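B., you asked whether I could sanity-check this one before it goes into the benchmark set. Here's the sequence:
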Amino acid sequence: MTSEPRVRPQRVRHGKRPDRVSVPPSDLPFAPTLGSTAVRTPSTPAWVRAYLVRLVACDVVVGVIAAVLASILRFGQEVRWQYLVVSFLIPPMWLLALGLSNAYERRYLGVTVEEYRAVTRAVIGVLAVLAVAAFALNVLLARLYVLILLPVLLVGGLLVRFVMRRWLTARRLQGDLMQRTVVVGRADAVASLVRSIKAEPTQGLLPVAVCASSLDGDWNTAPAIEGVSVAGRPRDAVAVADRMGAEIVAVASHPDLAGKALRRLAWALEERGIDLIVSPGLLDVAGPRLSIRPSSNLSLLHIERPAAGPRSVVLKQVMDRTLAALLVLALSPLLLVTALAIKLTDNGPVFFMQKRVGIRGEVFEIFKFRTMVVDAEAHLAALQARNDGNGVLFKMQNDPRVTKVGAILRRYSIDELPQLFNVINGDMSLVGPRPPLPAEVEQYEPDALRRLHVRPGMTGLWQVSGRSDLSWEESLRLDLRYVDNWSPIGDLRILLRTFQAVVRGSGAY
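And here's what the prediction gave me:
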């Protein structure tokens, strides 16, 4: 390992400045050339400016609506002049609170839930300002005025961001409003990162070039990586970003791109207004589990343990059983009609019961509405050659064993509703990994056994991401991601997404 060259500091004599030290480019691969005028001027893309203008305009409207509603609903037409002043100040105060809460931060636009958290922080900030101002001026604010104002600001701010994000997502799915991205790192890590970026166009990243090492030959003779042209080595990242007009440089996990090299890259990109994102190489660890632990000379990435503490588990069970009981009551007419339809069509049993493996390997009986002929299991061996599943799971499109009523039940996942009784009984959860068969568990590799650390669910990430259309590796990855990152709030989000997946019927057969 070669050490970096030391530059002897020059002593200033007789008030003269020392000559500029010339540093070879090979020693500072990412540093801009001293005295260079070719450094790209930092600028905000036009679509970001337009998006922010619309966002601010909508927030102003929300502030005005909140102030007017609070005044009218509390005082009617006899609004006191003090509240007229307060109402006039609400819109700019609301914008200021959102700005201080990072609600307009470019890196959060349409990507993370941080925008929504910023709205909550802004509402709390407005409440704090009103409380301090009332105390300092010895003014008693009407409670009903505040109780109307703050919820309207909260709901309006969240709704504005929800609508804007939906619009931005729709545009990005069409390939518009993307951020040109240069991916840097070792060839295999670059390929993995490019695949991940392309799989989620809603992130807004568009790989336009890669700078890769560990190639089979020279970079200018190397083929494209995942359809993206190779434009140089990692040390050429800044020059390539300038040439391609990139807005982001994404660094894949690479031991050679760390420490001083990564710091120099960050400095060079900072001068150009180019964002730097780094993939730490951690598979499926969600943001809430990641935090920075700073020290005097090094920032450490702290990874929290999965939320499987006793309190979280109890909270999840209470939430599951309560919601399951309410759903059984609400859906009882549908359950009765479905049972009658199954019974009247072929006079067979209404329910299909099957042994499944639950938490910690415990075996239980799962309840489902019967969707196949009575002797379906006897025909399974003859159909193995026509398996459309993912290798471990047997799935078949246009399965001849499925009845006419069963096809409708499967299309809208009505056949899964009796599993609500499994949830009430504590064998399953509303959200979790798919409940596997004992024969499937026997084929599990060690990683897949981690799926059994939580209760299986009626729905999960596999349900809202394609159901039967997923490969075994994709299904396993989603299940393991859920096991490592589940939370009560995350469960509620998956339940909401499940309704959309069921209506679409994607991957259901």
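One thing to flag: The CA atoms of residues 3 and 27 lie 10 Å apart. Otherwise nothing jumped out at me.
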